[in-house]
Amino acid sequence: MRAVSIFFLAVVKWVCLAPGASGETETHTLPETHVVETRIEAEAERVSLEALRSGRFSNLGEAVTEIPGVSGVKRSHSAVEPVVRGLGWERVQTQADGLPLYGACPGRMDPPAIILQPETVQEAYVVKGVPSVTLGPAGTGGRVMVSTDYERSAGSPPEFGGWLRSTYDGARDGVLGGVAAFGGTERLDFFGSFAGTSLDNYKSADGIEVPAGQKEFGGSISLGYRPLPGHRLRFGFIDLEDRGTDYPSLPMNSENTSSRVFNIGYRMGRTGKAFEGFRFRAGYGTIDHKMNNEGKSTRKKFEAETEADSDFFSTSLEGKWHPSSAAVLTAGADFFYLNRDAFRSRHIIASNRTFLDHIWPDALQWDVGAFAELDIEFTRAYRLRAGGRFDFVSSDARAADGPGLEGRTVRENYVFYYGPEAADVMQSDPLGSGNVLFEWKPGVDLIAHAAGGVSSRAAGVTERFFAFAPAPGGFQVGNPALSPEIKYEVEGGVDWQNAWVSVSASLFCFWFNDYIYSFTIDRRDVNGDGVEDIVRGFRNVNARLCGGEGAAVFRPFEPFSIPLSLAYVRGVNTSDDTDLPRMPPLEGRVACRVDLGNNVPWWAEFGCRLAARQAKIDSDFPENETPGLAVFHLRGGFEVFHRLRIDAGLENLFDQEYTEHLTPWAAVGAGDLKQGDEIPEPGRYVHVGFKLDF
How many CB atoms lie within 10 A of CB 410? Predict the structure, then answer.
């Protein structure tokens, strides 16, 4: 770590003094949202739409990992599951227009953030710190919040526009791109998009071929209508069709996945009234997923196929009042419902026998919650946000008495591994959450905040109800008797800027009671092939995570700037005095950028991402130590004429062989990978894209 830190500082010094280098971070002016809300959101960072739509990313999951403190688990090259401040899995909620999204793959092929293509997103941000209790069902990780609502200012004149973009990805010898059209009248707003991706395998710097095929297409529609002044009705639709994606970290590949999300909402806002207005939202999503082991080394022994589906629905109603001129009260209620079901069939070629495994036994979970939050502006310098919510969560596995492995039912396998208390699959969890956030703003150049709170999360469907069945790395079985996670947190941060520098820094610490922990519950030959199998389960432990983040942009003179950032988190299982698994290493970024903007429409950037060696691991998870890395890039762009922009980049400039710590091992042999191999990232490659506005 010390060596990487010294190298990081050396790179900063070198790039700062290098002639002709520097620039500002990519920014994008977001449209006015007109949402009835004035609440404080500490440690919430917006995703740059300019960067998201630059052609480097095929979905939102890839883009959010460039935010300090946000990492990602990659089961395929583009299927990135966000990890916020060391917390991943279903602790991190992805919400589209208020609807929590859930994938349909038991092996987590489809983390929700990958459903959202760059064209679909109108606004996105990651809540890393203490969240508002109005954001939805309680959780213990961060949130990826997305709006697909295209909204122009009330009274805007009629207009119509659009754009077309396409990018060539040299690493995977393929293309991705899309088209969008938008506009409206004085009362109507509309936005429509269509996008597609066709990418192939890639090679690492050492020539290792990694399966990375990806073929998908999809689109979105956003419609908004103002029937009366201060009123707005909106409708949204998202569709993504996956027609084949390689997952080297999993024993299967995606064959066909259809994801569809519908949203509707209505709001009314009034100015200068004690009752300011209300907002109603409802959403529904359905995902049908099919995967098989075609292209895997196991295909010679057996043919495996899984069909899974996920259906989810949510609705919320909130109102806003002004008990005084200095205070705003927001209160309301919400409801969420999730149903998951999955079967896996295995046809053993040698014996010509077929086995059917019920993975999610028709599992369901619903949550009804109520919340209230008060935002008080004591003076222009001092603000306070205090809120609380109560949730009641009910969970059930309606097919628990169906057949399972080794001649036992699904329920009997729960009891076999966890004891008689696991026989009851109908579980109810009352949950309480609340927090207080104080903000101090003595002037326009400085903002500081301090916050503390408690949040809770009921065990998810996979953690509670995964039937004893094959899973990546062996077998897995859920635990119906899990207690809810309870997280206590404190954090503080500061943002300061002047004419030549902008600085932000934050520190945080989380303490968990009943953290839901994945562990090895058994080792034995389950399938009778003479090889010992690992069986993983879930249990509650206590845990602690502490860390911090810092970012700065130095602007020594126009048009140069030097953005840099640093993030670190340490996670400890305090019950067993061991390290928590899948903790991202110390990571930093630094770049020098020149951006001439409207004077001469071009920009260029030389940058580097650095990560320290990660030796704080949970070897039982399993995971390995990973060495430090320093990966450089060159990027730039220019406007050929007013409506045509070209962007290009050279990634992994010095062709370094490296792996990401959070990328799981190869589950089985595929491409040049053998079972248990670390999966390397692409070697040096170029990408070139264009965007045409019309």
Answer: 28
* Encoded tokens for 632: 């450089």
Tell me if residue 134 falls in helix, strand or coil. helix
Q: What type of residue is 284?
A: Y
Tally of domains in the chain: 1
pLDDT at 407 over 60: yes
Q: Identify which of 123, 140, 86, 84 has the alpha carbon closest to the alpha carbon of residue 460.
A: 140
Contact of 35 with 132, CB cutoff 8 Å: no
Phi and psi at 479, nearest 5°, equal -125, 100
Whether the CB-CB separation of 377 and 383 falls below 8 Å is answered with yes
Q: Is the peptide bond before 323 cis (omega within 30 degrees of 0)?
A: no
Question: What is the rounded distance in angstroms from the CA atom of residue 291 to the CA atom of residue 180?
Answer: 31
For residue 299, which amino acid is it?
R
Entry pTM: 0.91
* Higher per-residue confidence, 503 vs 470: 503
Q: Identify the CATH number of the domain in which residue 312 sits.
A: 2.40.170.20
Q: What per-residue confidence (pLDDT) applies to 598?
A: 64
**Under a CB-based contact definition with an 8 Å cutoff, are residues 433 and 456 in contact?**
yes
pLDDT at 600: 63
- Residue 664 is given by DSSP the state P
Among 190, 286, 197, CA closest to 239:
286
Write the secondary structure of 330-345 as one string of H (helix), E (strand) and C (coil): EEEEEEEEEEEEEEEE
CA 227 to chain centre: 35
Q: Which of 267, 323, 338, 346 is nearest to 527 (CA)?
A: 346
**Which positions ≥6 away from 159 have C-beta within 8 Å?**
152, 183, 184
- Rounded CA gap, 636 and 649, in Å? 6
Contact 83, 73 (CB under 8 A): yes
Between CA 204 and CA 210, with CA 209 as vertex, the angle to 5 degrees is: 90
Residues 69-119 have pLDDT tens digits of 999 999 999 999 999 999 999 899 999 999 999 999 999 999 999 999 999
The confidence band for 19, taking pLDDT boundaries of 50, 70 and 90, is very low
DSSP state of 296: S
Measured at the alpha carbon of residue 485, what is the angle toward residues 479 and 491, in degrees to the nearest 5? 155
| Burial of 249: CB neighbours in 10 Å, binned 0-12, 13-18, 19+ | buried
Domain that holds residue 549: 2-693
